[in-house]
Each structure stands twice: as C-alpha cells, then as structure tokens.
Amino acid sequence: MTPQLVSATAPNGADHAAVPSSRQADMADMADMAEYLLWLGDDALVSAQRLGEWITNAPELEEDVALGNIGLDQLGQARALLSYAGELLGRNEDELAYFRDDVDFRCTHLVSLPRGDFADAVVRLLLVGAYSEQLYAALTTSADERLAGIAAKAIKEVRYHVEHAAGWAVRLGDGTDESHRRMQDALNRAWPYLDELFDPHPLTDHLDGIAVDPATLKEPALQRITAVLDEATLTVPATQRVAGGGRDGRPSEHLGPMLAVMQVLARAHPGASW
Amino acid sequence: MSRRPTTRRLPSASVVGALPADTDRDTLAAIGIGNPLVPMQEAPRVTATHPRVLAALGGSADPELRRVAVAAGNVVDPEIPVLTLADLGVLRRVYRPVEPDGKIVVALTPTYSGCPATATMAADVVRAAADLRSAVAVEFVLVPAWTTDDMSEQAGAALREFGIAPPGARPDPAGPIPLSLSVRCPHCDSRDTRRTSRFGSTSCKAMWACQQCSEPFEEFKVL
C-alpha cells in the first residue's frame, strides 16, 4: 500500500489518534480495496487505449472494428472498476484516468507495451485475455458483491476476446513462413512480460476472500495459452522474465508517452465534455 | 440453385417526374419504386402487461410508477430502433427512493460493459418520463449480468424482420470445442451462411453473409 492512497482516503485534517481502531481498520481495508481495483481497472484502461491505436491501422477493416470493439469492452470494464475505486478514494473515474501520472498507475508492463506489429496485438490479446479469463472467473465468487458483479459481466466479454485472439494466432502461426516468423517474434517479445501478471503480492493476502492470489491463475492460464500455441505451431520461448513492478508504481517506460497522448485533451481543457 | 435477384431495375427519371403525388403503392411497385416507400418498421408497443414491465414494478400498484415503467419500457434502443428496452430485457426496476422527495428510480442494465448506447437510453428514459411530468433518475445495475436470454420472444421476431439474425442457441463453454450452429439468414431463411467478422457495427453484433441469397446481414450475438 502506498502512502498516497492512505492520505487519499483519510478525511482532510482528521486526527488519526482520535479515530477508533475499527474505523482505522475499515479505512485500511478501503485503501487496499481501492488499490486492488486500480490494478484491474488500469490494466483494462491501458489495454483499451493500446487497442484503440489500431483503429485505421489494422490489416483489414473488419479487424479495425474488432479491435475497436474489444477495446470498448475493456474500457467499459475499466469504467466500472475505476468508478468503484474512485468512490473509495473520493475521486471520479475521469480524475483517475486523466489526472494521475504514470507512477500512480498500477497496470502491468505487458499491457502498456507499444502497439508494434499486428502479431504483437494478437499475442498480447491472447496472453492478457487468458489471464483475464481466469481472473474474472475467480472473481465472480468474490466476497465483494460489487466486484463479483463486474467480473460476471466481464467474463463473458473476455471469453469472446480470447477466442478471437486464438483464431488469429492459429491462422497466422500456422500460416505462411512470413506470418509464422512474425508471430514467433511477437511471442518472443511478449513472453518475458507474462510472469508479472501472476506475481504474488501482499495486497491480495490483505483482501482474503475478496481478491484473487494472481499466482493461482498461472497454471490454468498457461494451459489455455500453450494449447493455442501448439495448434498455431508456435514455440513457447525460453526467455528470462523482466523485473516488472507495475503493481508497485514502477511502470514500464512506455506508459508515460502513452498517457501523454491519452490525457492531453483532458489536461489542456479541464472539465471539457461533449 | 435459385438466387434472389440482387439488383433492381431503376425507374427512369421521366417516369418518376410524371407521377402524380397520390400514386398508390401498387402502381409504384409495378414500375420499380417500392422499398423507399415502405414505412419504417416500428418497435412493438409495450403495455403495462409486458412481462418486463410487470417484473420491473415488482408488484407495485402505484399508478405513477406504472406509467413511468410503461414509458421507459417503450424507449427504443438508439442503435436498433425495433427493440424497446422492455423487449431488449435491460429494464430492471422502477421504484420510489427511500427519501420521500427523491426522484423515481429507473434501473437499467447495460448489454455490454462499454456499450455507448447506454447513455442515450438513460437520457431517453428521463425524457420519456418528463413527458408524463415525472422526474426520474436512471441507475445502472450489473447484477445479474444481462444475457440475450433476457430478450423477449417478440424481440427475436422484430430483429429478423429488421434484417438482423436474432441470437441463436448458446454454445457450451465447458465443451472441448466451442461449437456454434450456423446462423439462419434473416432475408431468405437459408442456413447456408458464413461469418465474415466476429465483430460488427455495435458490440452486440457480428457480421455474416448468406451464400444462398448473397446478402450480407448482422447477427445479434449470444451472450
């Protein structure tokens, strides 16, 4: 938990010593809950923004529409998650999306990587989708009913996204020499970032019964991924993982420039609406 | 294999210019002017006995609530104007808030998390209630998650008539291979169709083409 989050939930000028210990515990729980919602919401928001970059750039018009629609689903999930986090933090979803700097985001590095080749988009959608599929399935039984409701909505959308990514992975991986090579290259580039999604973290222990220990999602997600890679004649890379740290305010160097584009309008014209 | 003609003879400009304003539809159709004069398909009217309206009222006999529920149920989807909110199954509850002076609440559920039509639906509900001099607030609920099973039977018929294939049977997600049945063409009823894209003009639709009549069409996806 970061000091910033604690101060964000504490009433202004409140005398902490005067707060009953049960209230303090509630406030600590709220800060933890908000932090967890930022994990999930920021992953969805940043991924949606990257997918949006594909509109007019995909190999065919139908794929512009597809990636745009997938991004829209993720944006909807992000809004539900960030609105919830915002209620706990006393900020609204727009403030969280547009007025936080990169070090205040809690997304993993994988979702913030630059757009790259279309093969990169397919691989990332498959990896992030397989993780999200397990995550949201597990969260449908969360003790937090609101989070369980968001997960129950998201799981149906995410399953469809993974099917879409798997279809492309097989078509390109088991396609021409060129498409196979580019898929394998993209897989090699993304693979070192995969482990960060499943890193255990003290935060989920604090939220026992509400949050999911990411480590428990690894085996089923990898099963799904490797089944697709097998069919796509792609090889699981034998690469070392990168350090990660996105959950603890150490974002990838790519997040800042991406946010500059995403946030410029809201920051240049605060309160702008249409 | 018989194919429906995909082109239509266009009337000559001289014929069109010579027609009196009150020419009847059969005469127009005979010279090749037909479809543009077919009236826009309208969504089936929703009454107080619609199952979704009854469910939204939860047994309340409050006349204002009933009027608001019927009005909200009659609001149409801005992107698929033959579906009312009642037939789409997104109208969840209409109730009075705890505070005695608060606005009546209309609870809707979104079809997809990011569906941009939800904001328009909410604004249209507020406007429809305002026409009845009732002030309402719209809230969105996620639980239970909307599914295409929430759509009414007449929604399927209205979609088909509108040229959109209604949602079909649900594939078994637990099965080894997610297998779905082919989708019936809403124009010629053929099952000889193929999906051209998993995604379409809105979140809820996919794009298909009919191999029998050669027409493209959209499918409302099972969710």
Which tags fit this structure?
A: 274 residues, mainly alpha, Ferritin, disordered N terminus, B: 223 residues, GMP Synthetase, Chain A, domain 3, four-stranded mixed beta sheet, three-stranded mixed beta sheet, globular
TL;DR?
The complex is a heterodimer of chains A (274) and B (223). Chain A has 274 residues and is mostly helical.
Notes on the structure:
The complex is a heterodimer of chains A (274) and B (223). With 274 residues, chain A is mainly α. In chain A, 64% of the residues lie in helices and 0% in strands. Chain B folds into 2 domains: 51-150, 2-Layer Sandwich (GMP Synthetase, Chain A, domain 3); 164-220, no CATH class. Helix content of chain B is 27%, strand content 15%. Chain B has helices at residues 13-18, 25-30, 51-57, 63-74, 85-88, 117-131, 153-162; strands at 91-95, 104-108, 136-140, 164-165, 193-197, 205-210, 216-220. Chain B has a 4-stranded mixed beta sheet with strand order 4-7-6-5. In chain B, a hairpin with a 7-residue loop joins strand 5 and strand 6 (205-210). The longest helix of chain B has 15 residues, at 117-131. The A-B interface holds A 62, 65-66, 68-70, 72-77, 79-80, 145-146, 148-150, 152-154, 156-157, 159-160, 163-164, 167 and B 110, 112-116, 142-147, 173, 178, 196-201, 203, 207, 221, 223.
Number of strands of chain B: 7
Strand content of chain A: under 5%
Per the CATH scheme, the topology name of the largest domain in chain B is: GMP Synthetase, Chain A, domain 3
What is the name of the CATH superfamily of the largest domain in chain B?
Answer: Fe-S cluster assembly (FSCA)
In terms of topology, how is this protein built?
The complex is a heterodimer of chains A (274) and B (223).
Chain A: H1 3-9, H2 21-52, H3 61-89, H4 93-98, H5 109-112, H6 118-139, H7 145-173, H8 177-190, H9 202-206, H10 218-231, H11 255-268
Chain B: H1 13-18, H2 25-30, H3 51-57, H4 63-74, H5 85-88, E1 91-95, E2 104-108, H6 117-131, E3 136-140, H7 153-162, E4 164-165, E5 193-197, E6 205-210, E7 216-220
